[in-house]
Amino acid sequence: MQIIIAAPKKLKGALRVPGDKSITHRALLIGALAEGVTEVKGFLKAEDCRSTMECLRSLGVMITESGEKLQVRGCKMDLQAAGTPLYAGNSGTTARLLLGILAGQPFKSTVIGDQSLSKRPMKRVVEPLLQMGAEITSEGDHLPLTIHGGRLRALTYNMPQASAQVKSAVLLAGLFATGQTVVIEPAASRNHTELMLKLFGAEIESAECRVMVKGRSVLKGSSIQVPGDISSAAFYMVAAALMPGSAVLLKGVGVNPTRSGVIEVLQRMGADLELKDQRNWGMEPVADIMVRGGAPLSGATIAGSMIPRLIDELPVLAVAATAANGRTVIRDARELRVKESDRIAALCSELRKLGAQINDTEDGMIIEGGSQLKGATVDSHGDHRIAMSLAIAGLTASGDTIIDGAEVIAISYPQFMADLRSLTVF
Length: 426
Description:
Layout: E1 3-5, E2 10-15, H1 21-33, E3 37-41, H2 47-58, E4 62-66, E5 69-73, E6 86-87, H3 92-102, E7 108-112, H4 123-132, E8 135-138, E9 145-148, E10 152-153, E11 156-158, H5 164-174, E12 177-178, E13 180-184, H6 192-199, E14 204-207, E15 210-214, E16 223-225, H7 230-242, E17 247-254, H8 261-269, E18 272-281, E19 284-292, E20 301-302, H9 314-323, E21 327-330, H10 343-353, E22 357-361, E23 364-368, E24 377-379, H11 384-395, E25 401-404, H12 416-423, E26 424-425
Parallel strand pairs: 2-17, 3-16, 6-7, 10-12, 11-13, 20-21, 24-25
Antiparallel strand pairs: 1-25, 2-26, 3-5, 4-5, 7-9, 8-9, 13-15, 14-15, 17-19, 18-19, 21-23, 22-23
C-alpha cells in the first residue's frame, strides 16, 4: 500500500493518541496469570497487541472485548497447553515475554512469528531461561522455538545490555520459581512490568538498575487505565516542533521517566514543549503535552543511558535532526539494527532519498542538519516506525512524498494517517 504525504502549512488541534503498546501487552499477560478478572481500559487496538491476545486465548485464557475495554479472566498461573504453535506475528514483545511465562508451565509450546520476527534475535531471552531450568530448542538464534517449562530455579541475572523485554521475561519466569529472582541491568530500561506486577500484588522490589521478584507471589486481578503511547505521540511532537505556527495538544500521554527521553531530547534541542496537568493513572505518570512550532532546533548528541529511554523514538528524532542547526550524533544504539528492520540502514537510505545529509555508523547515525527535504518515493522496509517517521519527514518536504509498504503502520497505530490528517492545516 502507498500513502502520499503533501506538506501542510502547520498542525493545529488536540489529539488523544492510542493506548501504550508496552502497557497493553503487559496488562494482557499479567492479567492472564492473576486470580479473578482484570479490566483494561484504553487498550491499544493494533496487530501486535492482538497477537498477544490470540496467543493467550490459545493457552486457555478468556478475553472479552467491549468498546474501549477488555476483560481478562485470569488462570491463577496455570495455563493450558495450546494445540497449535503460538503465532506472535510481528511482535517481539509477545514472543519474548510469553517465553518467560511458558518457562513456568509444565507443558511443551512452540512459538512462531512472521518473516520479520523470525529474523530477530531470541538468544538473549533463551539464555537466562535455560539457566532457570527451562528446556528450549531452536535452530539458531531465532523463531520458531520450542519450550518445555516446569520447575524453575531462582536466578540472579546480570544482563549484558539493557532490555525491557529480556528483563520482563526473566521477571515473569521468576514468578514460577522458588526463592528470589534478581535482574541487574547496565542501564535502566522501561519499568512497566515492575510497576504492573506491584499493582497486581507481587512481592517485588526495585532500585536503580536492580529488580527482585519473589517466586510464587499471588497475583490479583486489577483495573488498568492504559495511558497514551509516548512512542506514538513522538511523531506529532516532532512534526509540530518542526512546523512554524503549529500548536498541538496531546492528551493523556504516559510520561514514565524510563520512557520520556524523547521529551528531554526535544527540549534540549530547543523545542517549545510543555507538560500540563501531570497526574498518575494507577502507578503510571501521565500528562498532556503541548507542542508549539517555530522555535529553532539545534543538533544534539544522543547516547549512553539515554538510549534505552527512547530507543523506539530514535527514528523520528533523526527526522527532527535533519532540520536542526548543526550536527546530531546518535550512538550506543546498535539495538536499532535488530528491530523490525535494520533501522539505522533503513533510515539513512530513505532519508537520503529526501535530501537529508545522514550517514550510518556501527551503532548509530551522524546527521548534518539544515537540509531542505524534497519529496520522493521512499520505502517502509516493512517497519511501522520507519513508515511513520518518513511520513513526518514528508510533512516538512517540498512536493509530495510517496511511501511504499505503508500498510505496516497498522502493526502499532492503525489510525495514524486519519489522526495526522485531523491536525493538518493547508
